[in-house]
Amino acid sequence: MTGPSLADLVAPVGVSQFFDAVQGRAHRRFPGRAGRFADLLPWSEVNRVLREHRLEFPRLRLARGGAVVPAHEYSELVETRRTGLVPRLLPAALAEHMRGGATLVLDSVHELSGPVGELAVALEHELRERVQVNLYAGWGTTHGFDVHWDDHDAIIVQVSGRKRWRVHGVTRPAPLRRDVALPERPAAEPLDDFVLEDGDVLYVPRGHWHDVSAMGVESLHLTIGFNRATGVDLVAWLADRLRAEEVFRADLPRFAEPGERRRHAAVLRERVVAALDDDVVDRFLADRDAQAPALAQVGLPWTATADLLPAGDEALVRLLTPRAVLADEGGAVVLSAAGRRLVFAAAARPVLVALLGSVPLPVKALVEAGAPVLDRATVRALLGELVTQGLLAPV
Question: Residue 190: which of 221, 173, 212, 175 has the closest Cα?
Fold first, then answer.
């Protein structure tokens, strides 16, 4: 059973329409039927995560009335034989704070729950940006956080229950975490005041002020956060690329005559303008995708053996880089992923194309994709090379 895709989350708006008319522009609600996310993160899975993982503050925290509850009020540090002090939740104290209106927050829950992890992988592939999924749970009558803005876009998935949202819009367009000025707090009433119900989805762009309040009933939602590439990111990337040129590595002529400093500035300006060609955005985005880290999936026991893969072709494997880039170069095909650049014969292209979506596939399907040019042994050798590079693993 596959989880929701971006198309599922933003329906009835199409994905292309979401990118063109919604993303980065305004908040948008996408109503859905109750229970459609019930299998994504049921309460039993939340309880399992809390029980089986050592979750330190601030990754796991409680918030109430706009303030963070001190961690020692619902957890304790216990001595272990080899790792020293580790955190342990105090279930009764945690529940008491939540009965009193506290909101439970758990960052990066996609690393702890399989279905949420699969959702994050799918969305990273579609959004072409790194994704983090945080959990928010509570059922009090207070708000966990005061009105605030985030430095990332967010897709909110209401898994269970309901919560009241008030969205105030922007006071500074496209603010950054590291910025020259902070947005002013909104003075007027919210632009929108609504209840997000079980099965609904909400999109809130970066910089849009909002506050969220519990309604005395159960609420469990996921916030899918992602930072889209900006012009500042491009300039920082370009600065690193310019290190290859001696004129940018050279010392500035601080003590030279003013005319010499102006001539040096002119040379630098000329080189920067030349680097800012018509294709610079495409080159930057392709390199950003190619540098995106791989999933932390090991694939034991097979990847620790000489065989690298299970013997049977029914075994599932997946590419661990949802944003891998494939390009044709001089009669070869180049896979750029996780900072690596692997060159294969052009005949490998169908196999690599099949892997690009990071969806688990049986080895058999990849052998069929390579046929008749590549035989089974060659395809398995190709997959083995991807395993050794940390780019592929059995599921």
Answer: 212
Contact 204, 27 (CB under 8 A): yes
CATH 3.90.930.40 residue ranges in the chain?
A: 302-394
DSSP 8-state assignment for residue 194: E
Domain 302-394 belongs to what architecture? Alpha-Beta Complex (3.90)
For 210-237, what is each residue's pLDDT tens digit?
A: 999 888 899 999 999 999 999 999 999 9
Is it true that domain 6-226 has CATH number 2.60.120.650? yes
Rounded to two decimals, the pTM is: 0.93
The label of the residue with tokens 């072409």 reads 128
pLDDT tens, position by position, 72-117: 999 999 998 888 899 999 999 999 999 998 999 999 999 999 999 9
